[in-house]
């Protein structure tokens, strides 16, 4: 998972810095360095200055730094991460950033954000075109027993067997919508469930999204109820001893009929007797077993990974034209989710600490196995998130420079060099504190299992 994150961030950092690089070149501004990762101990520009790889072409030194938490381009005549004060003391040269009109400098500063947005959009267009969509039909789930409510769903009052018929008062087609971030982040969100013949409104707590800070959380929320069909038998278990086979279906336990796997688990996990009676459907045969079950909690088999059969799913393929329309919308949905999350953080509805993830948390989101589909989905998402975060009006981030440039364009006055330099220092200090907090938060979550 670390390798996936490192590759993803390397791609996104490189294209972000290339955005600054290419826009600077457009206006004949000299770029002295183009680095993936930092060749110093960020944000201390004069500490541990060395690179892993470097070469020079023209006026630009290209390289890979040793500190893998970002990257930068050193643009001549600009106060940046390198804090090169000596250069700024010399008279301005026509090839320098500071010599150019404010609108050109604004484009250079926006270059990285713009390229990250473009890359994110292209990735989502590609995923839409090449992979399409596969949805679980909510109507199928409701006609086949409703949902199995796992721990997170039980916390808000959903019960196994409930049928979710509305989200925020609206009917919906795809079961996948119940755990969408947009739903979990919306204010006053709710599910309408059908329990027996009664409709019940179940509010979603404003801070419920905090429970979904791990990749595994969605799998601990809601799943369609599944039949107790054997897919794989675990070695050394009761299932192996009685000879259960792939495709066998448990149809009865303790002389009581069962339809769903959760019903079987409810009996076996709470069983207090010595012997357990099982009825097994194998093709046209009905088999019966009585097994010693004292001290056991499961029979020892896995149900199929496919949550619902093909009949309960809808696969949608898109033309290139449709993908070009849908892709940007899906990319900008990431930004809308970020805005909703920030609003909830600032209003105190969700915890800043629980909402924040750093490299360790992001690496966990990629999963333990290499999966190219998940890799590109995560890369597209991160590209949009990086664009959003870089646009924040914090000195030392692109958004901070943009604020200063907009002030200059509106007022006609450029902030003093001293003020600008101090603002960059403050911004870097804030980023350093945030970086330390993020690492501490990630490690704390790892240790506590959060």
- Helix content class: 40-55%
How many strands appear in the DSSP assignment?
17
Low-pLDDT windows of residues: none
Number of helices: 14
Main sheet attributes: strand count, strand direction, barrel closure: 4 strands, mixed
Terminus-to-terminus distance? 18 Å
What is the radius of gyration computed over CA atoms, rounded to a whole number of angstroms? 28 Å
**Order of strands side by side in the largest beta sheet?**
2-3-1-4
What structural category do the secondary elements indicate? alpha+beta
- Oligomeric state: single chain
Please tell me the overall pLDDT: 88
Topology, element by element:
Elements: H1 2-26, E1 31-38, E2 51-57, E3 60-65, E4 67-75, H2 85-89, H3 102-131, E5 133-136, H4 138-143, E6 147-149, H5 151-155, E7 163-167, H6 181-185, E8 190-195, E9 198-203, E10 222-224, E11 232-233, H7 238-241, E12 249-253, E13 256-257, H8 261-269, E14 275-282, E15 285-292, E16 301-302, E17 313-316, H9 320-346, H10 352-355, H11 359-365, H12 372-390, H13 398-411, H14 417-448
Parallel strand pairs: 1-3
Antiparallel strand pairs: 1-4, 2-3, 5-17, 6-10, 7-8, 8-9, 11-16, 12-13, 12-14, 14-15
Could you provide a short overview of the structure?
The protein is an alpha+beta fold. It has helices spanning 2-26, 85-89, 102-131, 138-143, 151-155, 181-185, 238-241, 261-269, 320-346, 352-355, 359-365, 372-390, 398-411, 417-448, and strands at residues 31-38, 51-57, 60-65, 67-75, 133-136, 147-149, 163-167, 190-195, 198-203, 222-224, 232-233, 249-253, 256-257, 275-282, 285-292, 301-302, 313-316.
